[in-house]
Design goal:
The protein is of the alpha+beta class. It is 36% helix and 10% strand. The longest helix has 28 residues.
Amino acid sequence: DAQDTFAPMSESDEGEKQEVPLSERPKNKKYRRDKPWDHAGIDHWKVEAYKEEDAQGNYLIEESMFSTLFPKYREQYLREWWPHVTRLLQKYHIACTLDLIEGSMTVKTTRKTWDPYSIIKARDLIKLLARSVPLEQAQRIMEDEIACDVIKIGNIVRNKERFVKRRQRLIGPNGATLKAIELLTNCYLVVQGNTVSAIGPYKGLKQVRKIVLECMENIHPVYNIKTLMIRRELAKKPELAEENWDRFLPKFKRKTVKAKKPTIVKKERAVFPPAPTPSKVDLQLESGEYFLKEEERESIRRAKKKEKAVVATQAKKEERKKAFVPPKEVEQRKRPAEAEAPATAAGIAEAFKKAVGQHKRSKTSADASDFVLKPKKSKPVAE
């Protein structure tokens, strides 16, 4: 029968393929043929690396170019490492230029570029270098399974102090929190200014973005780190591969601390409404000015204006006089050494003895009385 020639083969215990008769075959597999090129050992999800041999001489016709600016403080680093960047992109036949005057980096394809997606990878490379990522980590972006993500966090929180506090919470003490996220997601993170740059596999980048955005929305990264650690342990158990893991994962309740309401002091309500503000006519009626003539009113205004001018002039004069008032002299206390010396010779001798007694006398020192002039004895008057 012609149908039997396309009958699917069944594999016996010895490994030999045998034909399955049409009567024993199910309806949906009745005319299915066996594919000798397809077997259980093939990984259908594996992405084969694209090599230069796969291009088969088909190069790009049009030129693609990407450019990005970099800050002033990155100029010295880029100048030192730019030869390494050029050598790295030379493998993919991509030209790159560093403009220090304009402060920009440019990458573009050439006539020999064989990988059409390599220019996108090169664009991401210069973008990461501009965001303070070191070249040792940024060059991983040229691999097939590695991608990058620059997460903008500057416009999530309005308050500057709160923004700095939450960004520091993402880094952790001595960078411990950032290191834990890197180990669990297999990504490299750089927190710089208003952005967070991440390099790693696609699955890890998705987890990093979730952690960073939730951290800026006031959810501590420790909760997500704990969940990732439990997921990693559950993934090691094959018996739980097809089960729901929600019963193992922690459920954190968000606590909202209610702000204290300010105590409002109730004002005593008056029984009668407040008196209306008197108008200009009411004031004139009260003072009697309403019944005066216009000339009399004008003279009263001038008199009031003169009184105000006199008071203002007097105040200015008093203010000017203060500059000519001499300051009060501070009485200086006299030192005990500057006290008035005794007028008599006996007083001088007594003061000198006290001064000498305060110091140590040397052996050769003479007696203080030898240096004092004694009064001459008066001659007895003859009677």
